[in-house]
Structure formats: C-alpha cells, structure tokens
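in:
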C-alpha cells in the first residue's frame, strides 16, 4: 500500500507562499491583501486540522525545532506563544527539517548574522537572495539575535504531548476552521 502523504506535501506551494511564511500585520496591508492572507491561512489551517500526523507535527515544531512558516495550524508567532506558555525554549533550527519547506539548503544562524554584518544596508529580501533562503528565515534569525536567543537550548524537561496539545487548545487558532 502506498504511504499517505500529509496535506502540506501534497500542496507545498500553499505552505511556501510568502504571505504564510511572513504573515503581514493588518495595519500594513490593504483590505484585499488582508483578505488574501486570511483565505490562504484558512486553507492551510483546514488541511492541517485534518492531517493524520497533526499531533506529532505540532509537537516537533513547538518543542524540538524552531521551524519557519505556517504548519500544524500555527504561525511562528503562535508557536512562540505556545513555548512561553509551556516555559520552554528551543534550539535555533538549522536542520533540513526546518528549511526544506522554504527551499534552498539549511541556513546557519551565524551565516545570516555574517551576511547582515557584511551588507548592513541590505533589506531582508536582499539578504535572503544572497543566502538562497526565504525572507522569513532571515527575519527569524535576526529577530532571534535581537531577542538574545541566538544559541539557546532547552532548559527544562520536554513537555508531554498532552501538555503541548492543551496549550494549543488555549490558542484562538485551535478554534478556527
Ligand atoms: S499538520 Fe504538519 S504534516 Fe500535517 S499538513 Fe500541517 S504542516 Fe503538514
């Protein structure tokens, strides 16, 4: 029997859409752009909500690695909220798991900082082009550096799956669809 692929693997272009990788803030976009974002997010959300490996995907993205983009019904900001709720921090992700979804090879935290230092006037998009990664990956590494999370590691025991799912249930995104 053929293995069943998760919905994100069946529609990778949806999950790699720049608007889901770098969600806009409502005040920075027009009503049409905001509607477009909400529609795309709702579409990915529906697929994740019906995914057979949702629990494992969410757990890994919250507890094990800091993954880019929208997955397991959560944005990067929502997963940061989950980690705060759970009292955990995770290593900056430089594994293929975290970068495969945005194309290009893994981009190291130091590489992003090095590029920023060498090209201080570049926009994030220009840095991303130099590094061959997505703009959101560059933004994430720069944000982590600003927040002093450049090389942090988990400091407490890992939460259980039940704790992660309970924390997810406390987010608004768990009630969408
Ligand atoms: S829950 Fe994870 S594995 Fe499933 S469709 Fe969403 S991102 Fe893909």
């Amino acid at each position: 029997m053929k293995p069943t692929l998760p919905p994100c693997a069946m529609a990778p272009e949806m999950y790699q859409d720049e608007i889901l990788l770098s969600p806009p803030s409502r005040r920075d976009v027009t009503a049409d752009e905001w509607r477009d974002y909400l529609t795309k997010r709702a579409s990915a959300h529906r697929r994740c909500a019906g995914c057979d490996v949702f629990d494992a995907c969410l757990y890994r993205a919250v507890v094990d690695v800091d993954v880019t983009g929208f997955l397991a019904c959560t944005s990067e900001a929502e997963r940061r909220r989950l980690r705060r709720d759970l009292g955990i921090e995770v290593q900056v992700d430089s594994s293929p798991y975290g970068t495969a979804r945005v194309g290009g090879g893994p981009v190291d935290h130091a590489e992003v900082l090095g590029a920023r230092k060498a090209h201080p006037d570049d926009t994030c998009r220009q840095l991303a082009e130099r590094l061959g990664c997505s703009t959101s990956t560059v933004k994430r590494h720069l944000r982590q550096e600003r927040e002093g999370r450049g090389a942090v590691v988990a400091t407490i025991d890992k939460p259980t799956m039940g704790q992660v799912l309970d924390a997810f249930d406390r987010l608004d995104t768990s009630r969408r669809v």
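note: The pocket of iron/sulfur cluster is lined by residues 6-8, 47-48, 51, 53-54, 57, 71-72 (CB under 6 Å).
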